[in-house]
Amino acid sequence: MIPGPVNLAVFFLCIVAGTAALLAAKSKLLSVGVPVWLAVTGLAGWIGLVRDFQREPPPMVVLLFAAVVLTVVTAVSRVGSLLVAEAGIAWLVGVQAFRIAVEIFLDWGHRVDLVPVQMTFEGRNWDIVSGVSAAGVAWLVTKGRAPRWLILLWNCVGLALLLNIVVIAILSMPTPMLRFHNRPANTFISYFPYIWLPAFLVQLALFGHLLVFRWLRQARTISRLPHFSA
């Protein structure tokens, strides 16, 4: 059973499909790996493997931890290196604009009593700033008007905002770590297809930030190389 209205689920699936297609278009390895990951985690959500929030440790927290580890490993691997080289910094920044759609989904979900208010921009989630600013910074990059310090500042702020909502989401789950006692609790993410919010969309945002850091490091290294005249 999928919680919430059907049109909300369809909107969410469109976000997932669109972002997965963006990755597949830029990386052959991810075009295989992402569908496999979506299938595994989607099945976990469908059959209810992560819905026991009273277990120690909560299965959803374990899944989130495993997803973060996989994301970091992928970002520092050859997959990340190829994506940084082939996609370019404008794409790496601009892809984060998908977070605007995620924030619209969360606000919509709150209005139908699926998502707790603190996980929306009406509450304590300001991640929409990351999505809107990503579009602006990416445009500046394409025009050659984005200095390295601006990209670094944007990336650090975006990562901080991502960490903020992840912590809020964890503290909104009905686990022993619960700190937000308003209703509804954050349980919708344990159901298909919304399990892909922490398992895929959050990881995509983290993955993107890590790749921008890699690009910044490479750009700094290149700028320090001596220039020889013929």
Describe the structure.
By secondary structure, the chain is mainly α. It has one domain (6-219). It contains nine helices and no strands. Helix 1 packs antiparallel against helix 6 (98-111), helix 7 (128-142) runs antiparallel to helix 8 (148-171) and helix 8 (148-171) runs antiparallel to helix 9.
Determine the mean pLDDT. 94
Number of domains: 1
Proportion of beta-strand residues:
under 5%
- Give me the count of strands: 0
Largest sheet: none
Ends apart, CA distance between termini: 68 Å
Principal-axes shape call: globular
Order of helices and strands: HHHHHHHHH
Structural class: mainly alpha
Alpha carbon gyration radius: 18 Å
Portion of residues within helices: 55-70%
